[in-house]
Amino acid sequence: MTMHYTRRTIAVGLLALGLAGLPAWAQKQYDQGASDSEIKLGNLVPYSGPASAYGAAGKAMQAYFERVNEKGGINGRKIVFITLDDAYNPAKSVEQTRKLVEQDGVLAMVGSLGSAQNLAVQKYLNARKVPQLFVNAGTTRWGDPKNFYWTMGWQPSYQSEARAYAKHILSTKPDAKIAILQQNDEFGRDYLRGFQEAMGEQFKKQVVSHLTYEISDPTIDSQMVSFKSSGADVFVNITTPKFAAQAIRKAKEMDWQPQHYLVAVSQSKEAVLRAAGFDNAKDIVSSTYVMIPGDAQAQGHPEVAEYIETLARYAPGADPNDSLNAIGYATAATMAKVLEQAGDELTRENIMKQAASLDFVPPMLYPGVDVKTSADDYFPIQKKTLIQFDGENYIALGDLYD
């Protein structure tokens, strides 16, 4: 009897030792915002104010996560996606981020929009070691793991996009007289840096007018009048959607017909070009890394049908041909991949580790574009293509550029 008891004790002891020796990934580990049943994520977008068109991205993210939850969540956990309005105001971004972290207790911030807005909270989130993932802005600052380990961008950098426009201008219109309209913040300055770098010495020689505006300005009409008077025949439009649409309409009204380069953050066919008038927007050059159902490249992709269905069900009224919806949807899919890889180790440290270990293709990315990251590469998407609006749809101008 004694011998039997001893054997059972030994067996149980060995089992306990075995469990204690299991690798960390096999044990459930949680930080604030995670549990057996749910994962809390925070997000800020401007649902109101001068950049409210960008609110579409937040609604599309919400729709994606609702579809995920209906299918059982991620590793059995439901996503609690708390998306708040910061009105594109950095001071409001600080207030809302603190609420999400300190009151709502989110595990991570994901897909928040705007350069100045994310810049305003970057040091706070890094000091608290809260992941600031897949920032919906292309400022190069989001890819600096040495100084900001807890911050990672998502889309291609503004500087690389601006370099592509500069190279296209130099190759197609080497004697161009260039006018530049730039939003006066970090978003605008980052684009300008890339454009200046690629133009080199030609920048001073060929830029005949460079004007800025504030996001609080009612219009940019006076700048547009000045551009026409400058004799510029190329227009580089570094603006957010409201002002992009104004610029397109004003150029048409004045009968000013430069070759128009429009930054990707405002190339939305629905939110910008339709608002400005498709006829007025004909021949605009922009760039993209996502596809929309109306694109020739999207035909036959099963993910496109699921995207359309998801928006129709969970974001009624959202236009699937608005690229802002495609961006939000693909961003949410990227975060879902991170959480899937994280398994039961839902710590902030492991979230960052998994975000820096991606190699996959989220839905709605342009063919040939993928997501790849590493511990020293915090730029998940590094490919785009130049596109031109033909009056109805955007047409690719060539191969992808890196």
From TrEMBL:
Top-rank taxon, per record: Bacteria
UniProt cross-references to CDD domains, sorted A to Z? PBP1_ABC_ligand_binding-like
State whether keyword Coiled coil applies.
no
Q: Where is the signal peptide?
A: 1-26
- Write out the similarity annotation: Belongs to the leucine-binding protein family.
Q: What protein name does the entry list? A: Branched-chain amino acid ABC transporter substrate-binding protein
The record's keywords, sorted A to Z, are:
Signal
Database matches in PANTHER family: BLR6548 PROTEIN
Q: Where is the Leucine-binding protein domain?
A: 38-390
What organism is recorded for this protein? Lampropedia aestuarii
